[in-house]
Amino acid sequence: MVQLKGNDRSAFVASMFGRISRRYDLLNTLMTVGLHYMWRKKAAKLATAHVSGDILDVASGTGDFAFGLLKHPNVNIVVGLDFSPEMLDLAIRKSVRLGLDGRFIPVIGDAHILPFPNERFASATVGFGVRNFSDLPKALADIVRVTRRGGKVTVLEIVKPQGRLASVLFLRYFRWVTPKLGRIFAGDYEAYKYLPESVQNFMSATQLSEILEGAGLRNLVVDTKGMGSIAIISGKRP
Questions:
Q1: Which of 12, 72, 76, 98 could link 48 by a cystine bridge, Cβ 3.0 to 4.6 Å?
Q2: What's the structural domain count of the chain?
């Protein structure tokens, strides 16, 4: 599955997230023992520090990262872009329940071809999404394009731990436990088999930082969590 490239991979991932959308939040909580809330909170704080205005949240999914950003008073609105209508539908319902529907703007779109003008946003974020991009450098370059000069791009992602012991333990846990949880709670073994495969074929925090620098970001701040398996990386567009 992870060997798929280009449009085929994009179509597969969009279909997969559509299928698991209603159980996505529950499985995230089970797989991370609830720690994903803390990681998003940390990333949102980093993304909003010393910026003011509108923020673009790419691969917004069910909206948790976007709503965390909107807790900061210097954020006006968050545009949540995702290619899964089912995921965004859940985000819209959440925004209404939270009283944030006037400040959360959902957009169905492709991260590789963003439908926004240059320097539109004060900051941009991607939470657990870059691993699924079919062309990571292209998508990051477009995210940087729509971020204003002096603004930030912040990425929260599952990465390969760099320590040998941590890497072995994490990948074994993710490979064996995740599909079983997916089968029990989401009824979709294949979708949750894809997730650990996508991590195994991804990169380390250091390698991801290099890609972000290649997209034009500077002054990178890198924070790792979960024995190095989670990376929060933020850089400024000069």
A1: 72
A2: 1
